[in-house]
Design goal:
The chain contains ten helices and nine strands.
Length: 274
């Protein structure tokens, strides 16, 4: 585990608790509409993360979008799974390294793992798709080209930037994208958000994502001035979500989608007169 992951695991609970205790003004309807709620790995508190069940739950819940991760099978099919291996999620079955397993073999043992094509066909244009390409073993140039072509073909029914975006922690992963897709991509920053915002701007990327507590006013202003989008993770309560709406945040990534949807609905529903 990286030190940033350890720090996040240690600090996130108290930061979320404190943020939730600080009252927030209520956003108006336009602010609510602008700030899209994105479920991190789907509705993973009720269903297995990154599965069709978790994604469909988000759709029926009325969410704006879902975030998920791409791994590549041995035969270069993009499938939805966070880790390189299956063991953390599917503890009752033999562990598989996805990049060493052909799709047919993977589906035989793990039918819950969807392909990117299945998600696009089922939920494209119904939910905004936030697609993170995970670190891969070193591919040769021919394999990378095949991956680019597959992504282009699968995403052809959708409009980049309108129906989906890509997410990157590491700019090296942009090699899997066709040239035009970079402008529909977010750089994810764990630290040094100001510097990362400048990097994303120079790369002509769509925007920057980072923790809401680290997305300071100067970075938000920089993104606004350069007509870039802002994404934050991971608001877990009503007050934090409302503040992000008031700040004009474009995308809120959350592990608690039901809480945020209920908060949103509470402002849309007129109070009872009974």
């Amino acid at each position: 585990m990286k030190w940033t992951d350890k720090a996040q695991a240690l600090l996130t609970p108290p930061v979320d608790t404190l943020s939730g205790l600080i009252p927030s003004a209520k956003p108006n309807s336009e602010q609510l509409k602008r700030t899209k709620i994105i479920a991190h790995r789907g509705d993973h508190k009720k269903f297995i993360e990154n599965t069709m069940e978790a994604f469909l739950s988000c759709y029926h819940m009325g969410l704006d979008g879902i975030e998920f991760d791409i791994q590549w099978t041995k035969d270069l099919v993009p499938v939805i799974h966070h880790d390189r291996t299956t063991g953390r999620i599917f503890t009752d079955r033999p562990d598989h390294m996805i990049c060493e397993t052909p799709l047919d073999d993977l589906r035989q043992t793990f039918p819950e793992i969807p392909t990117l094509d299945e998600v696009v066909q089922k939920l494209g244009k119904k939910l905004h798709l936030m697609i993170e390409i995970k670190p891969q073993p070193r591919f040769n140039s021919n394999e990378i080209h095949q991956c680019q072509l597959r992504l282009e073909e699968i995403l052809k029914p959708l409009k980049a930037g309108q129906d989906f975006h890509f997410l990157f922690f590491n700019l090296q992963r942009q090699e899997f994208l066709a040239k035009g897709f970079l402008k529909a991509s977010f750089l994810i920053a764990e630290i040094n958000l100001g510097w990362q915002a400048e990097t994303a701007m120079k790369m002509e990327m769509a925007g920057l994502c980072g923790h809401y507590a680290l997305m300071v006013a100067s970075t938000r202003q920089f993104l606004k001035e350069h007509k870039m989008l802002t994404g934050v993770g991971y608001p877990a309560n009503k007050n934090t979500y409302f503040r992000e709406c008031l700040r004009g945040t474009d995308f809120v990534f959350t592990n608690d989608p039901e809480k945020l949807v209920k908060a949103k609905i509470s402002l849309k529903t007129p109070p009872s007169t009974e």
